[in-house]
Amino acid sequence: MKSYINKSIMILVFIGVIACEKRLDEEVFSELAPATLFTSEKGITSVLNASYAYAHRPGFQDSWAAYHLASMTTGEVWGQGGSIENLWISEIDFTWDGNHDHIIAQWTIYFNSIRDANIVLDNLDNEAFSEEFKQLTEAEAHFLRGWDYSELYNLFGPVPLYKSSSDDPLLPRATTEEVQQFIEQELLTAIANLPIQAPAIGRASKGAAMAVLCKYYLNTRQWENAANMAEDIVDLGVYELLPDYGQVFSITNEGNNELIWVLPKDGTSPTASQAIDALVFPPDYPRPFPNNTVFAARTYLYDDFVNSFGENDQRKNYIITEYVSTNTGEVVPGLGNDQSFPYKIEFDPGAVGAAAGNDIPAIRYADILLSRAEALNEISGPTQEAIDLINEVRNRAGIDDLTLGGYTQETLKEAILQERAWELFFEGKRREDMIRQNVFISDAISRGKNAQDHHKLFPIPQVELDANPSLEQNTGY
User: Fold this and answer.
1) CA–CA separation, 81 vs 83, rounded Å?
2) CA triplet 278, 282, 283: central angle to 5 degrees?
3) pLDDT per position as a tens digit, 450-466
4) What does the pLDDT look like over 252-297, one tens digit per residue?
5) Which candidate in 67, 90, 239, 343 could, as Cys together with 365 as Cys, close a disulfide (CB 3.0–4.6 Å)?
6) Which are the contacts of 93, defined by CB distance < 8 A and separation ≥ 6?
7) In whole angstroms, what is the distance from residue 359 CA to residue 345 CA?
8) What is the pLDDT of residue 4?
9) What is the rounded CA–CA span in Å between residue 420 and residue 425?
10) Residue 13 has pLDDT above 80, yes or no
11) Across the strands, what pairs with 259?
């Protein structure tokens, strides 16, 4: 038997030696071989999609980092449990530094998106491409750079401006004026050439570019520009407040007309899903679907905020104030213990464990209405138009109208900030709202935190400073 096996092996080796007279050359069937990646519309589109993927905050940490940097730092929420608790503590206590994982994640994804958008723009001058393809793709790439740089500027202040893939990778930071001008020009270019309707959910549209620019104007206190851009968005006639607040966030109603710019998610993709709810609810919370998984960490709302809603305010229905433990069968009170849960992001019935496919609203129509009201108030004080805009949002929530006679410019400013807290809670807006209205630091100090003026910006990641000697850290870090 042993002799038979040896003979069989020798025959197979002999056949292997004589079967091929020449070296085997692999036939490449992909249309996106390195030689064709930048010379075909399909290849350029794949690079554009890569830029989008980064801009949409891919993966678990990239998606929740923006939420936590904007909410833990403002007293909007707090959290405990799991390995993420140390990151949260530094955000809550204003002790973060350039090695913080959430800060590094935000810097990395936006610059990766800018890199890919630059590659697209550098390779669009090709006679083989149709003019329609070039115009739309160019506009989308400008939108992506405008969005990415507006987010980076919000987090870090002026950053290096990479406008081409051939730029020196070790650029220093640009000036404030240079970065501001670039953001505005990128978005204006996009607005001029993007279609009214986005080609798909999560792709750029004229309204999305206008909304990003409106929020950029607002956050840089360019009140007149912000008010005008918000009015232009309203005049598009494309967007509306949905009658039901909860339907804005429903997973069965994604792509609705209140969502102007949205970050699409896919629960079946490890790199395109999000896991925000997995960090909100405890393991003994009665999850509605057996495929939902949560981690050991929990995210809580404070009692003061939960109790601040009016009795009939429909928006508080998206806060869980108690639950029945699946371990003990007993009611676990959240309200009264600063442990209510935000529940705008419902559990995804199609989730794969912690990976959920709920799209993340980045800018919605209610935000634009309140932005115009705020800008109008900053320009000329309370007006009937500003009050009417706020009341559109309040009416949908089921609460009483504000009246013009009851406000000064200062008290209406406070009322708008409070209205934004109720309308936009746990949507990643609180930090920029409080910084814009100069209460970010003072409010933190009132909570007993050692907050200082330099905390309005996050530090440049230490790994970037190590790699690029031309970069200078933000003052105070």
Assistant:
1) 7
2) 90
3) 999 999 999 999 999 99
4) 999 999 999 999 999 998 889 999 999 999 999 999 999 999 999 9
5) 239
6) 449, 450
7) 9
8) 46
9) 8
10) no
11) 364
Closest by Cα among 289, 432, 444, 457 to 358: 289
The residues that bridge with 341 in the sheet, in sequence order, are 320
Alpha-carbon distance 351 to 154, whole Å? 32
d(CA 432, CA 436): 6
The whole-angstrom separation of Cα 182 and Cα 189 is: 10
Please tell me the predicted confidence (pLDDT) of residue 14: 45
Rounded to an integer, what distance in angstroms lies between the CA atom of residue 428 and that of residue 96? 18
> Is 342 in a helix, a strand, or coil?
strand
Residue range 398-442, pLDDT digits in tens = 999 999 998 999 999 999 999 999 999 999 999 999 999 999 999
Confirm if 80 and 281 have CB atoms less than 8 A apart. no
Q: What is the DSSP letter of 402?
A: P
Cα distances (angstroms) measured from residue 118 to each of 10, 122, 167: 57, 6, 10
From 380, 343, 371, 382, select the one nearest 437 (Cα to Cα): 371
With pLDDT > 90 as the criterion, what percentage of the chain qualifies? 91
Return all residues near 86 (Cβ < 8 A) that are at least 6 apart: none
DSSP for 178-229 reads HHHHHHHHHHHHHHHHS-SS-SSTTS--HHHHHHHHHHHHHHTT-HHHHHHH
For 39-51, the pLDDT digits (tens) are: 999 999 999 999 9
Q: Give the pLDDT confidence score for residue 37 in this predicted structure.
A: 85
Expressed in angstroms, the distance from the first to the final Cα of the chain is 76
Written as six digits, the tokens of 262 are 């949205």
Report which residue type is found at 102.
Answer: H
| Closest listed residue to residue 214, CA positions, set 67, 360, 54, 362 | 362
What is the DSSP pairing of strand 77-80 with strand 298-301?
Answer: antiparallel
Place of tokens 């390779």: 123
Q: What residues have CB less than 8 Å from 443, skipping those under 6 apart?
A: 74, 75, 434
**Cβ atoms of 179 and 121 closer than 8 Å:** no
CB 378 within 8 A of CB 357: no
Residue 255 — left, alpha, or beta (φ > 0 → left; ψ -120 to 50 → alpha)? left
Band (32; pLDDT cuts 50, 70, 90)? low
Maximum separation of any 2 CA atoms in the chain, in Å? 105
For residues 364 and 248, the answer to whether their CB atoms sit within 8 Å is yes
User: Looking at the predicted structure, is the pLDDT value of residue 21 above 70?
Assistant: no
Q: What is the pLDDT of residue 399?
A: 98
| Average pLDDT rounded to a whole number, residues 166-195 | 98
